[in-house]
Design a protein that fits this description.
This protein is mainly alpha-helical and about 100 residues long. The chain contains 5 helices and 2 strands, in the order ββααααα. It has one domain.
Length: about 100
């Protein structure tokens, strides 16, 4: 799936082209609702995905699933929470998966 770098970060490759390459902030390019990168505008995709998973906001997770793939999002959720994922997070992931399959 991803490539591990120094055991802490991995390179996430988008499945689709991310719009607005001239915009530096990935949050803006992905049109996320919450400013996850307010303290770090040059945040890497893997760090951003972890922050989004920790808040499990449906619309933002949907955007990440669209651009990076649902399996990448599920993998990050497992890395962050392990087997003890919050019920709401599981519900959001299940709803996104249902929507993608229809």
């Amino acid at each position: 799936m991803g490539k591990f770098i120094n055991g802490t970060h991995r390179e996430l490759l988008p499945l689709r082209e991310i719009p607005q390459p001239s915009e530096k902030r990935l949050v803006k390019r992905l049109e996320l609702e919450y400013a996850y990168d307010h303290a770090n505008p040059s945040m890497e995709a893997d760090v951003l995905m972890r922050k989004v998973v920790k808040r499990y906001r449906f619309n933002d997770m949907l955007q990440l699933a669209y651009y990076f793939g649902l399996e990448s999002l599920k993998q990050v959720a497992y890395e962050v929470y392990g087997e003890d994922q919050p019920r709401r997070l599981k519900q959001v992931l299940r709803n996104i998966e249902t929507g993608f399959n229809n």
